[in-house]
Specification:
Length: 688
C-alpha cells in the first residue's frame, strides 16, 4: 500500500464499530477498497460505495462519529450516515477546512456533544466549503449544554450551499434547530421542517456577521422556545428570502421584544421577496410579531409578498417593528393577521418606540386587534408613511377610553397617508372618546388624496365612523373624500375630540351619525377649519346633519369656500351650534338645500357667536321654525350675506326665539313660511 491510511486500515488488528471515518482529502478506488474488505475478513467495517467507482474507508475510532475532512476534498454520494455520536462537533460529518461535496445522502439520527455557542452540528459541522445536493438531514441533535445547529452548523468563515434537500426534525439546545450559520449559507429549494431550538431560530439561526440567502423551498412547522420560530437573524447578520413559504412556525418567548413566529431580525438586515409568511405564531405571554419581528436597529424590506394569518399575544399579528432602523413594505399583502389581548394592538402591523415604517402600494385587509389598530398601529414616537394601497376590513375590538382605530391607530407619532383607500374598517368602542372606524389619531397625521369610506363605529355609543381625532391629535387632510361612514353616537365622518382638524378641498359626503354630527362632530376645546370642499348628503338622527359645534369657549369651527348642502337632521340640518360659548365663522360659503326635520333647516344656533360673511344661506327647509336660520340664543352676525329661498312653517328665512341677529349689507329674498312672517320672525333684530 502506498497510502498510509490505506495501509493502516489493511493492517489494523483492532475490530472497528463504524464510529469514525477519517479521510484526508481523498476518496479511494473502489477496487482497492474491495481488496481491503476481502483481506480484512470482517475484522474492519466495509468500505462505503460513494459512486463513480470510488469508496471511502473507516479506521479505528479516535473521536466518535466523524467523517472528517481536514483539507483537500471529499465527495460523498448516495450514502446514509445514521445514528452516530460525537463528543465534540459534527455528529455525522465534520469538515474542518476542506471542500466536501455531498449528493443524495441522508444524515439521520446523529448527535453532537459540543455544549457552547459556535459549536455543535448534530448532523454536519462545516468549517470549510460544503455543497449538499439532495438527500435528507433528519432527526439530528445538538442538545448538550448550549449546543447549536441540530442539523448543520456552518462555522465562521465557512461556505455552505444546500440544494433540494429536506432538513427535518432536528434539534438544538441553544440555536438553529435546523441550521446554525456563522459563515455564508445559500439554500435553494430547501425545506426546513419541524426543527426545534431551545432558545432562538427553530429552523435557522444566524450568528455574528453571518450571511444567509434562501431561494425557493419552505420553512414550516419549526419551533423556537424564545425567538424566531422559523428564521432568526443576528444584529450583524444578513438574511435574504426569495420565493419561499414561511408557515406554521412558532416562537414562545414571553417578553414584549420576543416572538417573531416566522422571522426574527435582531437588528441586522432582512429582505423578503416574492414570498409567503403565513400562519406563524408568537405565543409567549407578551410575544409580538406573529409573522415577523424587526428588533431595535434592524432593517426589514419586504416586497411582492403576502403576510397572512399570523398571530401574536401582545402586538403586531403580522409584523412587529420594535424601534427598528426601517421597515419598507412594497406591494405587500397584510391579510387576516390578529393579535391577542396583552394588550392587543396592531393586528396587521405594530410599531413600538422610534420605529420608521413605509408601506408602498400595499393591501392591509381583514386584520384584527383585541384593543387598538386593527390594521396598523403607530407609537407615540413612531413614523408611519402610507403611499397608495388599500386598508380595508380591519377591526379594532377595544372598548376602553381612547381605544379604536379599525384601520389605523396613531398613538402620538407621525403618520402620512397619500393616495390610499381606507374602507370598511370597524372600531367596536362604545362610549365617548372611543371609536374611529377607519382611523384613530392622537398625534400628527396628514392625509392627501385619500378616500375614507364605509367605515363603522356603530357599537352602542361609538364615535368617528371615518376618523376619530383625539385631544392630542392634529389632523390635516388635503383633497380626497370622507364618505358613507357611520357612527352610532357622533361624527359619522369625523369626530374631533378636543384636537385640531384642518381640511382643505375635502368632500364629506353621505356620512351618518346616530345622534349628532353627520359629517363632523366636535367635542371639547377643539379647533376645526374647513377650506374648500363639500359637506353634502350627510345625516344625523338628532342634531347637525352636516356639522356640530360644541358649547366651549375654546372650540372654534370655521368654513371658507365650503359648500354645505343636502344634509339633514331633526335640528340644524346643515350646521348646529350648541350652547353659550360655541363659535362658528362662515366665509364665502354656501349653506344650501339642507333639511331640519323639526327645526333649523340650514343653521340652528343655541348660543355663542355665528358669523356669516359673504355667504349664501339658500333653499333650506324645515317643517318647524327657521328654514334658513334658527336662533335660540347667542348672536348671529350676517355680513354681506344672502338669505334666500328658504322655507319653514315659521320664519322662512330667519327665526329668532332668543339672542340677537344683526345684518350688514345683507339680502333676504324669496323665503317662505306657512305662518307669517315669511322672511324674519323675532323680537331682537339689528339692521345695519
Amino acid at each position: 500500500m502506498t497510502n498510509p491510511d490505506e495501509e493502516r486500515q489493511f493492517n489494523n488488528l483492532t475490530p472497528l464499530n463504524l464510529r469514525e471515518v477519517v479521510l484526508h482529502g481523498q476518496t479511494i478506488d473502489k477496487s482497492i477498497s474491495d481488496a481491503i474488505d476481502a483481506a480484512a475478513m470482517g475484522t474492519a467495517p466495509a468500505g462505503v460505495d460513494v459512486g463513480g467507482g470510488e469508496a471511502f474507508r473507516v479506521t479505528a475510532p479516535v473521536a466518535a462519529a466523524e467523517i472528517r475532512s481536514a483539507s483537500g476534498s471529499i465527495t460523498i454520494r448516495d450514502a446514509t450516515i445514521i445514528n452516530n455520536e460525537a463528543s465534540g462537533d459534527g455528529g455525522g460529518l465534520f469538515n474542518e477546512g476542506g471542500a466536501v461535496e455531498v449528493t443524495d445522502t441522508s444524515f439521520i439520527g446523529n448527535s453532537s456533544g459540543s455544549d457552547s455557542p459556535g459549536t455543535g452540528g448534530g448532523g454536519v459541522f462545516n468549517g470549510g466549503t460544503l455543497n449538499i445536493d439532495g438527500g435528507v438531514i433528519s432527526g439530528n441533535t445538538a442538545n448538550v449544554g448550549l449546543g447549536n445547529g441540530g442539523g448543520i452548523l456552518n462555522a465562521e468563515g465557512a461556505s455552505l450551499t444546500v440544494t433540494q434537500t429536506s432538513i427535518i426534525g432536528n434539534e438544538a439546545a441553544r440555536a438553529g434547530g435546523g441550521i446554525e450559520n456563522v459563515g455564508t449559507t445559500e439554500l435553494t429549494d430547501v425545506d426546513l421542517i419541524g426543527n426545534h431550538a431551545g432558545i432562538n431560530g427553530g429552523g435557522l439561526h444566524t450568528s455574528s456577521e453571518g450571511m444567509v440567502s434562501i431561494t425557493g423551498g419552505s420553512v414550516h412547522d419549526n419551533v423556537a422556545d424564545s425567538e424566531g420560530g422559523g428564521l432568526w437573524n443576528s444584529s450583524g447578520g444578513t438574511l435574504s428570502v426569495s420565493g419561499t413559504t414561511v408557515s406554521r412556525n412558532e416562537a414562545f418567548g414571553d417578553g414584549s421584544d420576543q416572538g417573531g413566529g416566522g422571522i426574527f431580525n435582531d437588528g441586522g438586515r432582512v429582505s423578503v421577496t416574492d414570498s409567503t409568511i403565513a400562519g406563524n405564531h408568537a405565543l409567549g405571554s407578551s410575544g409580538s410579531g406573529g409573522g415577523i419581528l424587526n428588533n431595535t436597529g434592524g432593517t426589514l424590506t419586504v416586497s411582492d409578498s403576502s403576510i397572512t394569518g399570523n398571530t401574536s399575544n401582545r402586538a403586531g399579528g403580522g409584523i412587529e417593528d420594535n424601534a427598528g432602523e426601517s421597515v419598507t413594505l412594497t406591494r405587500v399583502d397584510l391579510i387576516s393577521n390578529s393579535t391577542g389581548d396583552s394588550p392587543g394592538n396592531g393586528g396587521g402591523l405594530h410599531i413600538t418606540g422610534a420605529g420608521n415604517v413605509t408601506l408602498n402600494d400595499s393591501y392591509v385587509l381583514r386584520n384584527t386587534a383585541s384593543a387598538e389598530g386593527g390594521g396598523l398601529w403607530n407609537s407615540a414616537v413612531g413614523v408611519l408613511d402610507i403611499n397608495g394601497g388599500v386598508i380595508s376590513g380591519n377591526v379594532a375590538e377595544g372598548t376602553d377610553t381612547e381605544q379604536g382605530g379599525g384601520g389605523v391607530f396613531n398613538d402620538g407619532g407621525t403618520v402620512t397617508i397619500d393616495d390610499a383607500v381606507i374602507s370598511r374598517n370597524e372600531a367596536l368602542g362604545d362610549g365617548p372618546g372611543e371609536g374611529g372606524g377607519g382611523i384613530f389619531n392622537d398625534g400628527s397625521m396628514t392625509l392627501q388624496n385619500t378616500l375614507v369610506t364605509n367605515n363603522l363605529a356603530v357599537s352602542n355609543l361609538g364615535n368617528g365612523g371615518g376618523i376619530l381625532n383625539s385631544d392630542n391629535g392634529t389632523l390635516n387632510i388635503v383633497s380626497g373624500s370622507i364618505e358613507n361612514n357611520r357612527a352610532d353616537r357622533a361624527g359619522g365622518g369625523i369626530e374631533n375630540n378636543g384636537g385640531t382638524v384642518l381640511l382643505s378641498g375635502v368632500d364629506l359626503m353621505s356620512n351618518y351619525a346616530g345622534i349628532n354630527g353627520g359629517a363632523i362632530h366636535i367635542s371639547g376645546a377643539a379647533t376645526t377649519a374647513l377650506t374648500g370642499g363639500r359637506v353634502a348628503g350627510n345625516e344625523a338622527a338628532n342634531e347637525g346633519g352636516g356639522l356640530w359645534n360644541p358649547s366651549s369657549s375654546l372650540a372654534t369651527l370655521s368654513l371658507t369656500d365650503v359648500e354645505v348642502s343636502g344634509n339633514s337632521a331633526d335640528f340644524g340640518g346643515g350646521v348646529f351650534n350648541d350652547g353659550a360659548d360655541g363659535s362658528i365663522t362662515i366665509v364665502t360659503s354656501t349653506i344650501a338645500g339642507n333639511t331640519g326635520r323639526v327645526d333649523g333647516g340650514g343653521i340652528l344656533s343655541e348660543g355663542g357667536l355665528v358669523t356669516i360673511s359673504t355667504s349664501t344661506v339658500s333653499s333650506n327647509n324645515t317643517s318647524g321654525a327657521g328654514g334658513g336660520i334658527l336662533v335660540d340664543a347667542g348672536t348671529i352676525d350676517l355680513r354681506s350675506a344672502t338669505v334666500a329661498n328658504n322655507s319653514a312653517n315659521v320664519g322662512g328665512g330667519v327665526n329668532i326665539d332668543g339672542g340677537v341677529v344683526s345684518a350688514t349689507n345683507s339680502i333676504f329674498s324669496g323665503n317662505t313660511a306657512s305662518t307669517a312672517p315669511r322672511c324674519v320672525r323675532g323680537v331682537v333684530w339689528r339692521w345695519l
